[in-house]
Amino acid sequence: MRSFRPDRLRGYLARNYRAPGMIVVAAGAVEHARIVDEVQTRFAAFSGPAAPAPEKARFQGGTLVEPRDLEQVHIALALEGLPTGDAELYSLQVFTAVLGGGMSSRLFQEVREARGLCYAINAFHMPYKDTGLFGLYAGTDQADAPELRRVVISEIAAATESLNETEVARAKAQMKAGLLMALESSEARAGQLARQMLAYGRPVPLDEIVARVDAVTVASARAAGRSLIARSRPAIAVLGPGSGLESTAAIAESLVRRAA
Hints:
5 strands, alpha+beta
C-alpha cells in the first residue's frame, strides 16, 4: 500500500478501464433508451483499444503455518474449483452446500453438533470466469485441532461416496430459494446482471439457472466432489497458539493421499 502513488494508479486505470471492456447495468425504475443515451454521453471519453487480456489464473497449493498469540487455532483450506461456464458447476455447488453450507450441512452437524470441536465451520465455492475457489474454514481450540483435522478429512472423503438424495434435494431447494431472495433488491439484480454479462456475454434467465440446479443428481454431485479433490494440491493456512501446528497442516497431505 505504501508503494501506491497517484501516477501509478492513473497508469493502472488508463491501461485497464477502457470502453471495450466496460459494462453498465441498471435495474429498477429505469428507462432503457434514456440510460443508453446517458452512457453514450458520459462515457464518450472512454475510448481506445480494449485492455490487455488478463493472465489466466493459476491455483497454487501449499502450506502456511504461522504461530500467533490467539485464543483459537484457525484453519483455512482451499482447492481449485470450477469456472462459471463449466458444465459441472452446479453439481459442485450442491456438493459444497451438502458438505459445509449451513447448519444442516455434514461438517456443521458432525464437527460442531456431534463432537463439539468448534463453534464455526463452513465450506463455500466461488466461481470466476477462468477458474473457481473451493474454501473451508474452521476455528478450534489447540487441543481439538488434530481431531478436527481427522474428522474434516473423513467427512470430505465420505461425502464423495455417500451423498444421498435427501441431502441433494435439500441443497437444491436452498439454492433456488437463495436465487429468488437475491433478486429482491435492485442492487442485487444489477450485480447479477453484470456478473452474467462478464461471464456469459448475456443475461441468463432465472428459469435457465433453476433448470441447471434441478439437473443435478446424487451421482453428479458425488462425481464433482471426487474431481474437486483430485484437481489440485490443497492450499492450507493454519494460524494460532502453541506448537504442533505443522501436524494440523498435514490435512493437505491427507487430501492428496486420498485423491491419489
